[in-house]
Amino acid sequence: MTQHGALSGIKVLDLSRVLAGPWAAQTLGDLGAEVVKVEKPGAGDDTRSWGPPFLRSTHDGSPLDAAYYVCANRNKKSVAIDIATPQGQRLVRELAPNFDVLIENYKVGGLKKYGLDYDAIRQLHPRIVYCSITGFGQNGPYSHRAGYDFLIQGMGGMMSVTGRPDDEPGGGPMKVGVALTDILTGLYASTAILAALRARDVHGVGQHIDLSLLDVQIACLANQATNFLYSGEVPQRMGNAHPNAVPYQDFRTKDGFIILAIGNDSQFRRFCDAAGLGCLADDERFARNTARIGNRDALVALISRRVGEQTTKHWVDLLHDKAVPCGPIRNIKEVFEDEHVAARNVISRLEHPLAGRIPVVSNPIRLSETPVAHAGSPPTLGQHTESVLTDYLGLDGRRIQELRAQGVLG
């Protein structure tokens, strides 16, 4: 693990599983915190089995952990403790005072029966920053429901504005292609944790962070939410079109698609001049963005005809030269083959104890003085059980073996 990151010296106890919590903990680990992940012996994080694809052993090619698990668990140590047992609960309570942060995503009240809830841990460690991530928050009529990204995208409004309109082929609600609500919740969690750590430095006490996937999803409706609040009109699915800017969508070219992302009137004029449609920039129906929104269908039809006459490459080369925001629609393979993406070093390679050198997507944060480090590969289940319990609690090998024999440790 990195010793010189921005969060060097901060210790995080990660009791979370799947994506939102692990993403938050991984972000802190990338920034230099020491992260210890507590997992169930024999099974571990649910996503270890969410494959194929899987990591493969360099020894015999056998499957190891799923690629899904790899995306959210680098820069961590894994300790296999069964917190359903009294001895396992005691071990976690003894570990907690050694840590600055605890992250968990159990159902509301799920850790209270184990004596690992915020109130119990705070009694042992008043300076703890305790982050609880749930589907619906710690209070309210839905607080005891389980919440998953797909469900929250539906309940939180995202799917109502994602996808093609109902009256078009393929129309209907659509989720985003990655678990975006989980990712955004993880990022909000890491931000909240950093804020709470700063407050602790000033005031000397920790606090409880109550983070809800539903709250995050609603917050991230952004302009769609405020459009409704200020107009009273319910936003609808518009495919790839934008409710507040035109033209801001995909167009079919002679051999594929291009995205035009026209954000202001001067960009629109430059596009029209480059495309041989200069008359449109002087047309009162299209000269201003407000007018273009009101005449969206007519304008899109005119642009579509013109764009369809040339290839994607033609338009990208032409419009980039004119400072018009545009680009092709790529698959993920094409993304990683892009020369600019390669220049930004978005793939890092880590040494895994069983799978050799493995690729991971780099953290996008670029800090000039305390750079992010991708130092530790996602750990195997229980890889650090003995070292963590020895270093933090002083347990010797004999005691650890006893606990293993009793099924408390993996």
- CATH architecture group name of the largest domain: 3-Layer(aba) Sandwich
**Low-pLDDT stretches:** none
Proportion in helices? 25-40%
Radius of gyration: 25 Å
CATH superfamily of the largest domain, please? Crotonobetainyl-coa:carnitine coa-transferase, domain 1
Total number of distinct structural domains: 2
Work out the number of β strands: 13
| Share in β-strands | 15-25%
Give the strand line-up of the largest sheet: 5-2-1-6-7-8
CATH class of the largest domain: Alpha Beta
Intertermini distance: 22 Å
Structural class: alpha/beta
Number of helices: 17
Give, in order, the helices and strands: EHEEEHEHEHEHHEHHEEHHHHHEHHEEHH
The main pleated sheet reads as: 6 strands, parallel
Output mean pLDDT: 96
At the fold tier of CATH, the topology name of the largest domain is Rossmann fold
The global form is elongated
Q: What does it look like?
A:
- By secondary structure, the chain is of the alpha/beta class.
- It folds into 2 domains: 272 residues, Crotonobetainyl-coa:carnitine coa-transferase, domain 1 (Rossmann fold); 81 residues, formyl-coa transferase, domain 3.
- The chain is 37% helix and 15% strand.
- The chain contains 17 helices and 13 strands.
- The strands form 4 sheets. Strands 5-2-1-6-7-8 form a 6-stranded parallel beta sheet, sandwiched between helices.
- Helix 1 packs across helix 6.
- The longest helix has 24 residues.
- 36% of the residues are buried.
- The model has no long low-confidence stretch (mean pLDDT 96).
